[in-house]
Amino acid sequence: MRAGLPCCTRENEPERKSRWNIRRCLERRGMTRLLKMPPQIIRLVLLTIGIVCVYFTARFFLTPQSFGQYGHYRADALQDIASRQPYWAGKAACVACHPDHAAKLASGEHKTLSCETCHGPGRAHVERPDEKLPKLNMSLCVRCHEASPSRPSWLHQIKVQNHYTGSLCTECHVPHQPNEVPP
Amino acid sequence: MSQTITRRAVLKNLAGIVGGILAMPAARTCKAAVQNALASSPAPTGYDPFKHKWLMALDVDRCIGCGLCVEACCEENGVPEGHWRTWIERYVIKKPDPASGKARGETIVDSPDGGKKGFPPLLIPKEDILKSFFVPKLCNLCDHSPCTQVCPVGATFDAPDGAVLVDGKYCIGCGFCIQACPYGCRFLNPETHTAEKCNLCYHRITRGLKPACVEICPSQARVFGDLKNPVPDMENDPLRQFIAKNKVEELKPSLGTGPRVAYAGLDEVVR
Amino acid sequence: MHDTILTNLVDALPQFEGYVYPNERTLHPLWSVLIVVYPYITGLVAGAFIMASLVRVFKVKALEPIYRLALLTALAFLLCATLPLLFHLGHPERCFEIMMTPHFSSPMAMFGFVYAWYLMAVLLLELWFDYRRDFVEWSKTQTGLRGIIYRAFTLGVTDLSEPALRLDAKMGRIISIVGIPSAILLHGYVGFIFGSIKANPWWGNPLMPIIFILSAVVSGMALCVFAYMFLCWARRVTADMRCLDLMISFLFYAVVLDAAVEGLDWLHRLYSAEEGIEVLKEVASSKLFYTLLIGQACLGTLVPLLLLGTMQLIRKKVAELNRRRVYFASTVLILIGVLAMRWNVVIGGQLFSKSLRGFMSYKMEFAGHEGWWLSLALLALPFVILTLFIKYFLAQDLPHD
To answer: Which residue is closest to B214 within chain A, CA to CA?
Structure first.
């Protein structure tokens, strides 16, 4: 109901000071019973309607677009989370270029290992094959094979301080095929 | 009651109508601008979360406590120091005092730095130890996750493919989910001030890779698979094999959270 | 020198004993002092409102002198209730999300709506209906800023006829009746936030919301008595002893009920001795010795019970001045005791690990956004606002009544 409507123009009510004449509009629509409501109630109802309108307007603007698509969350979040770049390349990436090493590994007890478990992150090398991976540190063998009462019995364990101290592990063991002895 | 239609009235009407028409796109542009902060970035295409159901299973008898999985996770996900998305616990059950009449002695648990650099040698003499083992811990991928139930805004949720994820752009950092998780797998990231937890390396599994901890684990203690798309040759699907071969347990079943992560070889002292 | 470096380093690291989950090893608890202050403030609001509703709903005429003071107290504290939460959030700028996309399975999501409902549809509305006549009359006589404020608050309704005033009284009563369950909801949902956390054996308990509500009523009533006695002292006016005695009676019975239910909670825990009881006993008896056993139980509950109980029996034999002293001391002890109760539940519940095998020791900081200074400031602010309210809205002589 706007001031432009014919029934509420100034021409019809020259003696009233306000441009809005709620009483005339309600009379024309036969809703005069509303006028009998106490002024406190009318004001409070109008105020409530105003607050509710503000709330729903804010809700329209501030709710993200994809919210509620799959559930009570932002469906775009799935893409956001999945868009992070992986750090580890994965064994399949190594096997693609080094099938011979992979075959050797698969025939020995270290077949459960991924290449990157020992060789470190390989993505840089996969993207730029000329960039070689850093040399291995022998402390890695000890990390898994140091004897501990907490470790399961199927694992070959050594007490490092009693086991050929001063030598490198690779002098006697071949990591890609642990059952073999080097020439 | 004559309806005088003045030029003024008509112009006012027209202005109102045109304004109304222009307002809607203006409102939409404003809305888009306001939501700019929540815009998404490019992600792997062709992944349908409804076509997968991921699960991780843990074989306690195969865990050697090397902690390489914890390190791999921290590097993959940029986990801040002093917080862990996955960690290893070492349980030591001592032999009982003969006079006490008990079957087993005291249980001692530790997890130095979450097991990230492996475990230092035990200070308890070997003769006193009845049993000792390592237990890897992570998000239990609950069916009725208490953490998603209590999030007040819908920032953490159960994805259709079984992962429980946190929307870092929507989280308000109230910490309710961290209090509600019975397994201690959530933490408040001190840099982003939002809740964080293991998300099964969602960015890896949506690209067909395995989670970092599963990739790096040297002893196949962590078994990962897709319940909706098992490897066609059932013998080669590690998850199916694991579930067929082992008696499995879940952590804290009495709480009714419905944790899906299956543990084999657990002991009753593990919480 | 190496020793000092080592000591400082050890102090800088999180401290714990036994086994705690790695993610529980933080320097500060996740829900810290601010989350102690928030339930305390909403509890005071609920309790003060219940005291006011005794006048309108249960028609306890003798409490008429404190009706407006109780409502203004409730409003002053309610206006400050959101502040501790905003300071605590990791992303306070996203706080609107709780009202835009509330997750209705979460009790915390109720906060926005319950708070808005209670502030606007209960407290402000009841105050408006009670004050409307005064606003109209004061706006005619006062000029300047005060005049503008009074005129704004009339909302343009200047009808002071008999039917209008009767409607005001009737609406006030209806809103009071609606307000009682609203007040219970306002503070009950906070208790439910704790009670719903089944992961925590101390918190996850059906009695938790009830304990919170009852201690809220106790604290709110004690605050009304405290505010009334302080106001009378500040204005050099003698307190209405009939009103004061009656308030104290209600307070006494509320404390009895609260103590009974809290006692029941602990009795049941100790009796059924479920998993985790060892850890809880250790926390309650040694880590929380001063705040729980001394602060909450002895000073905050037993001593006021004894003092007020004795007063109930021998009231007529005690001189008014001494009675007032005992009342004042009791209310101060009760207020401190209820704050201690919030501390024990919130902080105490985070002192033991969910592995049920260890305890954490936290450092409480003074400065910083979860520190002591901020909490004290947030507790003092409602009193400052209440002083302003009293200055503007609780004049020496009221136009009526």
So the answer is: A114
**Do residue C100 and residue A63 have CB atoms under 8 angstroms apart?**
yes
- The partner residue sitting opposite B184, judged by closest CB among C21, C90, C92, is C21
Q: What is the pLDDT of residues B169-207, one digit of tens each?
A: 999 999 999 999 999 999 999 999 999 999 999 999 999
> Residue C342: inside a domain, yes or no?
yes
DSSP category for residue B50: G
Please state the domain extents for chain A. 12-64, 91-171
Q: Which chains touch C (3 or more CB pairs under 8 A)?
A: A, B
Cβ contact, residue pair A64, B220, below 8 Å = no
Q: Is the pLDDT of residue B7 over 90?
A: no
DSSP C297: I
Judging contacts by C-beta atoms under 8 Å, the chain B residues touching residue C16 are none
| Residue to substitute from A72, A80, A95, interface B, most B β-carbons within 10 A | A80
Domains of chain B by residue range: 49-87+139-143+197-264
How wide is the angle at C-alpha A72 spanned by C-alphas A66 and A77, nearest 5°?
Answer: 45
Chain B to chain C Cβ contacts (< 8 Å) = 118
- Within 8 A of C171 by CB-CB distance, chain A residues are 40
In a domain, C399, yes or no: no
Question: Residue C262 domain-assigned?
Answer: yes
| Spatial contact of C285 and C293, defined as CB atoms under 8 Å apart | yes
Structural domain count of chain C: 1
Question: What are the chain B neighbours of A82 within 8 Å (beta carbons)?
Answer: 43-44, 47, 202-203, 206-207
**In B78-201, which residue ranges form alpha helices assigned H by DSSP?**
146-150, 176-180
> What value does the mean pLDDT take over residues A111-137?
89
Least confident range of A15-19, B133-137, B224-228, C232-236: A15-19
Q: For the domain that residue C171 is a member of, what is the CATH number?
A: 1.20.1630.10
Interface contact A62, partner C, CB < 8 A:
yes
pLDDT for C254-272, tens place per residue?
A: 999 999 999 999 999 999 9
CA atoms within 13 A on the CB side of C345: 30
- Cα C251 from chain centroid? 14
The ipTM value here is: 0.91
Report long-range pairs for A118-121 (Cβ below 8 Å, ≥24 apart).
A118/A175, A121/A87, A121/A88, A121/A89, A121/B75
Give the domain extent around C212. Answer: 17-393
The correct CATH number of B49-87+139-143+197-264 out of 2.40.30.10, 3.40.190.10, 3.40.109.30, 3.30.70.20 is 3.30.70.20
pTM over 0.90: no
| pLDDT tens-digit map of C327-369 | 999 999 999 999 999 999 999 999 999 999 999 988 777 767 6
